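Two records follow; treat each independently.
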Amino acid sequence: MMRQFATKEQLSGIVAAVFGTDRRVLTANRLPNGSKKGVYRLTLDDATSTIVYIWDPAEDYWSDVQGADRADPADTFSHASGLDLFEAAVRRLDSLDVRCPRLLFADRSRSLYPADIAVVEDVRGGTLEALLERDPDAAREPLAALGQALRRMHDHPAPRFGKVAVVDEDLPVIGGSGAQIILERALADVEEAAERDERMRGGRGALISALHGLASRVTAPPRVGVVHGELGPDHVMLAADGRPVLIDIEGVAYFDIEWEHVFVRMRFGRHYAPLGRDDLDPDRMRLYQLAMHVSLVAGPLRIAGGDHPEAAWFRDLAATHAGIALAMATQSAP
């Protein structure tokens, strides 16, 4: 499809409505790291800047490759995109004193732009990922602050699992337990990946057996807290005071905290220690780790089949995780 992105003229109307007509947009740049929504940085003529989020199918590279069954908000892992999810996540994170971009304006009227939009603060301190690569010593303080924020999130007494926007409105969710949801999702991911990847097709039986075996060992009661869902160092910006700011928060949910820690441990690698905790269930961690790798085969192969400009990168990512998943399945064999 030919994607139509927002123009400077369209975004100028939003700025006028939010900040007044005495401020002019100098530049409007679509940032390259968004695959589910449009993220635009606007620089204004008073030397300030702001960010505009746009939830429009033309901005969402997943919209043409996701199955219809993945759009149900009652499904904790359905497509996490939309203004409702963003606003609910902001409210919950704010209540826990966890920084995310400050919401300045939200609009569903379609009078300023033909899609739901939000205007948020522009956090200009760079990503924690970049700081870890450039100066690990300087990253110690924000990393420790992130660990404290994660503990507040994960220790929050969640009423039940599900998307924050759904649970906080007391709406129904699908599934009996976190482990069962992850198992069913991973089995579906194996089938999807096997259709697209020869190695996964050859290892299908071993993966299915390993997933069932690991799931059968999960017996401890779950620890359900507030999880980000995709918390890598690239999803943590740094405020002017050095405080970590979580971005891409639409996937915030109440779920087993081991699911978060498997991803965080993988993404932060040798920097994970300040974020870890010693009360995680090892059986859930093993199941969720294999499920995470399988997900990181199926999902990237799915989006690589569309028109995303970084399709080759997604295929390489899928190949890496296919190798890890298949090795884990072999090691888990009885």
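The next record belongs to a different protein.
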Amino acid sequence: MRTASRPMAALSLTVAAALALSACGGEADAGSDAGTPDAGTVSFTWDRNTAAEDAEPELEETTVEVPKDPENIVVFDMASLDTIGALGGEVSGAPLDSVPDYLQKYLAEDAYDVGTLFEADVVAVEAEQPDLIIIGGRSAALFEDLNEIAPTVDLGLRGTYTETLERNATFLGEVLGAEDEAAAAIEEIQAGIEEARAVTADAGTGLGLMVSGGELSAMAPAGENSDARGARGGLIYDAFGVEPVVEDIKAATHGEPVGFEYLLETNPDYLWVVDRDAATGEGSQSAEAVLDNDIVAKTKAAQEDQIVYLDPVAWYVVFGGIDTTKIMIDDVLQIAG
């Protein structure tokens, strides 16, 4: 059974290509835009959901002016922390208990705690008087409270995974004065994903599998404009080109939860496994232990050593960002041998 091990090969980048990408980086997906109205700020526009929780979405175009070269940045979105750090920036405040080990280096030495991924410690944030606050996904509902403290932008998923990554990297590059670095990182990510898709194109069928609490959930392609949960589950297909073993996985599974027999019935060439409990620090049984049984042993994926265990924090918790996407690319490329 395979686990990620080798680093992604370095990709050749030219200054000309980087500058070209930087020049067009402000062209974002519908409803989102990064621009520079004056030398001291960068504007960010997105369609913000103003509806109450569990109500039908009500989108309102929202524009926030963000100061360039902010010294005190608070981040509730781990993908943004990742990208800021990868572009040479530093984060002053974050939900410290939720920052993965590989992103700790992007925190200031005296970084302060701002709450959780879902709930802000508004008093603590206000006391630190940040220059910029970034939310997204789990923290999107915090906008109104936090925007009263400092300019707040939502860098959560809009469009596809790669569109979101490229838009956010371009925007943060402008904010940090790291436009060339952002353009080069985008080009490297694009090349890496294309390399991974070339590998999966010849790999046969696959099934993304989430393992949690000893139970299995089949992950399905999400397509464009999915919510964050659907896009996260569909990444292995939508971003990395794995051919689903069943055309309509959701319909075939009557939702998503499946039993071990389903793995044998569909019998994909590869199983792509995310251990949710390992990502969240819950549970006592690893995904590998859960899948170590007589039924799974009969599957083609098990017999041909084609059960791939994906980095759980990258694929489940962070779900984006420059360094994280490189980890994902490496996870997929490992099947190339």
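Discussion point: The chain has a mean pLDDT of 87. How would you locate this feature using only the token line?
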